[in-house]
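HD domain-containing protein: structure, please.
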Amino acid sequence: MTRMQQQLALVLELDRLKSVLRRTRVKSAQGRAENSAEHSWHVAMMALLMEEHANQPVDIGRVLKMLLMHDMVEIDAGDTFVYDSVASAQQEEKELAAAERLFAILPQEQGEELFALWREFEAAQSADAQFAKALDRLIPMLLNYHNQGQSWLEHGVTRQQALTVNRRIDDGSHALWDYAQQMIEHATQQGWLKA
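Here you go.
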């Protein structure tokens, strides 16, 4: 295959991400589950809008690349509910295998470059990755909150779980973590999160 054919092969494979359904419902059409492709686009747009709230200066181009491809592994591994600690522990191995398969579709140097960026996002050690991870955690909270706690209620999520799982938002943005904590407290008062 030519370089372009390899790249187009991954583009076509990525279409499958539109069929991976998440637990979060879209706000604009209550009752319909969000898919992973929509989530990736939405969180990338959030990065463009919220860059000024990062704890440290970030390279927004790198952040956008991370966010646009971070969940492509769900094509093979599926989506895991972030509050399901047992499934989350098993997900890492499935996602790594998926990443190895998907990035291998590309021309070697391009696949290796993007695979390294994906691993950087997963490790969440750099300022770019920490900010990207913060946004990735915040956006489902926003949707849940504005859908009156829909998936929190459906899965019996507690206030403490919401605080523990989402605390890494603070690594990327203190301002957004302050906002997230306010949502958690209000959601608890409303009964959307168990006290």
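Notes: The domain at 3-190 is CATH 1.10.3210.10 (Hypothetical protein af1432).
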